[in-house]
Design goal:
The structure holds 2 protein chains of 2 kinds.
Chain A (H helix, E strand, L loop, with lengths): L19 E2 L2 E5 L5 H15 L2 H15 L5 E3 L1 H7 L3 E5 L10 H14 L4 E6 L3 H12 L4 E6 H6 L1 H9 L3 E5 L6 H14 L4 E3 L10 H9 L1 H14 L5 E6 L3 H7 L9 E9 L10 H4 L1 E5 L1 E6 L24 H9 L3 E6 H15 L5 H13 L8 E5 L8 H7 L5
Parallel strand pairs in A: 4-14, 5-6, 5-8, 6-7, 9-10, 9-14, 10-13
Antiparallel strand pairs in A: 1-2, 2-12, 3-4, 11-12
Chain B lengths: L2 H11 L4 E7 L5 H13 L4 E5 L10 H12 L4 H14 L5 E5 L1 H7 L1 H11 L3 E4 L8 H9 L3 E2 L1 E3 L8 H5 L6 E4 L12 H12 L6 E4 L5 H8 L4 E4 L1 H12 L4 H20 L1 H6 L1
Parallel strand pairs in B: 1-2, 1-9, 2-3, 3-4, 4-5, 6-7, 7-8, 8-9
Helix pairs in contact in B: 2-4, 2-12, 3-11, 4-6, 6-7, 10-12, 11-12
The chains are: A alpha/beta, B alpha/beta.
Chain lengths: ~400, ~280
Amino acid sequence: MKQVQATANSLRQGPDANGHFGMFGGRYVAETLMPLILEVEKSYNAAKNDPEFQRELDRYREHYAGRPSPLYLAERMTAHFGGAKIYFKREELNHTGSHKVNNCVGQILLAKRMGKTRIIAETGAGQHGVAVATVAALFNLPCVVYMGEVDIERQKPNVFRMRLLGAEVKAVTSGSRTLKDAMNEALRDWVTHVDDTYYIIGTVAGPHPYPQLVRDFQSVIGEETRAQMQKQEGRLPDSLVACIGGGSNAMGLFHDFLDEPSVKMYGVEAAGHGIETGRHAASLNGGAPGILHGNLTYLLQNGDGQILEGDSISAGLDYPGIGPEHSFLHDSGRVSYVSATDEEALEAFHLCSRLEGIIPALEPAHALAHAARLAPSLPKDHLCVVCLSGRGDKDIFTVASRMGLRI
Amino acid sequence: MNRIDTVFADLKKRNRPGFSAFLTGGDPDAATSLALLKAMPEAGVDFIELGMPFSDPMADGPAIQAADVRALAHGASLKGVLDLLREFRRENAATPVVLMGYANPVYRFGYAKFAEAAARAGADGVLVVDLPPEEDGELRRAAQKAGLHVIRLATPTTNDARLPAVLDGAGGFLYYVSITGITGAAAAAEESVRQALSRLRQGTPLPLVVGFGIKDEASAAAIAKSADAVVVGSALVQKIADLLDRKTPPAQIVEKVAAFAASLARAVHGARDKAAA
């Protein structure tokens, strides 16, 4: 969490005082929540300028989460594609198995600082839920995680992990019974328990200041990548590739490099069965701007403004929205937003497991799928960093069932 | 003069609290919804809050969410709600109607286009739950130009520091959300509402309307002692759900929901008489 030096043409100075990234972002919440999110913002601004907060954050990052995560040259994958040098930013090696813990450690320290005594969260794949349950256990705070009934069914190992950690997992049966509905329920819980509860949002979306503070807590990914690449190759990377559901691992990787024009960036959305089928979770490539969950951003929706259900093999990408800063970076053209289908992600999942001995989560398998498209035609001195945002243990049942196997 | 202002001026003259019914537009289907709307004025409803259904109604509890789901399943849309209102206005020129809903369908429709279309259809006010004052500038200007009041929400968490922001640009009445929670949740204590309203009255001359958590005649009458009007929503749409569960024919649904509304209206209208007696 470095202090950002805002310069006139910097892409890194957003959001503005009201949480807008261009036309996106903002605070679209009912009045009951307004005083709360204003308080979160005030507390966060004070915390980030407090060296003691930063010291504590650094201590948990290093000794609890296990940072820095390695930047690893994937030699067999590089040889297989025969082009660009593929580096993995190994976020799957973090405690709890994904990048989600970076954000949770930061937010629980903020919750503690605000004197909150109860933690709530939403989760899709369960990676964020597990990370929240983990830090809630560590800080001895009661924790309720809202999770769609559909996701509970397809992510059983993570549900059990949350329960082992002492969290209460509440099944959400409304709407499409997935991540968006879990977020609705978490917001309902929050307006009902405004005095004692802190809501740990898991991605760079939601009302201001969440997109900013989650990004700041995740920016350690890009900051480390810059230093590690400098050490290993003596220069900046040429391209960055990350998967996007809400977009927190991508924002975390990209943010430090936004003002480096030589660094190309690719955000990879979930194309599900294919964008053209309408059964996908690609908000930027198949949606339109709208307002949901506290922010204005690209959304999957029909012509009447009703929110549509996402569709992806990866529960973590199955969200009809995207962080507002990504919407801004999309419209400004700074980042290229592409997509990968379920099939392409599965192929990359198997390839990475066999070639590198790393079973990736299905979410970053989408990023790997795009790297597989890019790498072969790029020169051998091109440095491409793929964010390996999570490990795939949680997905083995989904993959087995796709292979027609029961395990 | 906006119908909302006319009705509150009249209520004030008679020292009588008003009663408002919330119904989701298109619930359970367009035809029954229209019949329900038409039955409200005769039931004694002073003004109607007409919900614009949304797939993700985050500030609402299970009853209103289910109503939105029912309406959407029967093809409801924002345009469809405006059509309903236009039909209602063919027979009723007096009862104010406030369109209530969430930002996305309105944003998608276009703020300016929506304000004009709503005014033409016969709306008197608009309340968009997730458009706080910080974000409602574009809609507010368009609505005011079209002669619609922009209704704002105040809640128990709206402190003195925040209240001026809420009141800036507010029109028609101030909707006081009596609890920190979602629609249909537990009712607020009469005394805490009375105290909150007395604090709000120091900041605004607008009529104060109380909603959320008022579900029967007794709770409506209790709140009506200190409020300028009370709103019942979840209890009414839950009645629709219960009647649908029992396979009640549409005509009887309308009759029974109107009877419930009439009973609530009587309780509210008589609340201060009883208090005086």
